[in-house]
Amino acid sequence: MKNSLRVFGILYRDRLPVRALNVLLQFFLFSIFLILFAVFFNINNYFLKLGSKVTFYAFLKNNTSQDEVTKIKTTIQNWPEVNTIKLIKPDEGLKILKKSLGKESDILSTLETNPLPATLEINIRTEFTEKIYIQQVSDKLKKFSAIEWFDTTEKYLGNVVSIRKILTNIFIGGTIIFVAIIILSLRIMANCIINRYQENFKLLQMLGASRKFIIVPFIFEGFLESFLTSLISVITTNYTLLLLKEELEKLEVNIQLLPLNYHIIFVLLVSVLGALSNIPDRRKI
Questions:
Q1: Are 122 and 75 in contact (CB under 8 A)?
Q2: Residue 247 and residue 43 in contact, taking contact as beta carbons nearer than 8 Å
């Protein structure tokens, strides 16, 4: 056992430069991933806010009573797709009606008041801004005989939702590829070390060292190495983004840092990947 520990200690000291190179590679990969993730996080939030502002405007008939307006408001407010609903001022309703009619709004140019004075502003919840839900709300509004005309801002924001979906798919695909690159690089580096010192491992086994005695330190080393490297990457990346945030705020551009739970999940995930990638093949050890 004493000789095994001596050989084991020499082996670990001898490959410190290789491990240092591995740490630099991991730091580079982790930092690039975190920066790209932060960029996507902010872009996604931007499009999410735009896409969440889907609003319906329902123009009620001129002879609709106040009680009926209240009843319609209460009914619509209880729909799962609806966030808020309010009755807007007649002059605002007239402007919206003109915008909704487009070229046909010329007929309203001579009017000073809204021919459909009661206008409801219906704001849709963020999770219901996809086209299928917008169509559901449209179908429900058509059932109200008191509603003369309704329109939605979705036609202006439909492309925003589509772009967000495309970006999300690109990010998911990119993340899978990036994680695969990280796993592959960790695995290649571990195999290089195992192949380089295979004779030393055989010597350890000849001296009585068990397979567990050899691979457990490898697994722990892989976990600790990835844990510390990812932690340093998180700290340096956040510091860099914080400096960038301060500079952009001077230009009235706001960006958000990644939430703490994202960083915790990232550090734990890559640490586990580092440990698993350091498990050598049974045919080699």
A1: no
A2: no
Q: What angle do CA 184, 187, 188 make, to 5 degrees?
A: 85
d(C-alpha 31, C-alpha 34), whole Å: 5
Strand order in the sheet with 82-88: 82-88, 119-124, 55-60, 147-152
* 112 vs 171: CA distance, rounded Å: 50
pTM of the model: 0.61
Q: Is 183 helix (H, G, I), strand (E, B) or coil?
A: helix
Domain spans, the chain: 2-49+160-277, 54-152
Q: Which amino acid is at 254?
A: N
Amino acid residing at 59 = F
**Site of tokens 């982790």:** 30
The distance from CA 259 to its chain's CA centroid, rounded to whole angstroms, is 11
Least confident of 139-153, 218-232, 233-247, 270-284: 270-284
* CA 39 – CA 258 distance, rounded (Å): 10
**Nearest-5° angle of CA 100, CA 103, CA 105?**
60
- Name the residue type at position 55: T
**CATH fold for the domain made of 54-152:** Alpha-Beta Plaits (3.30.70)
DSSP secondary structure letter of residue 83: E
pLDDT (tens digit, 9 = 90+) per residue, 192-232? 767 766 666 666 667 666 667 777 777 888 888 889 999 99
Both tokens of residue 100? Answer: 């909704």
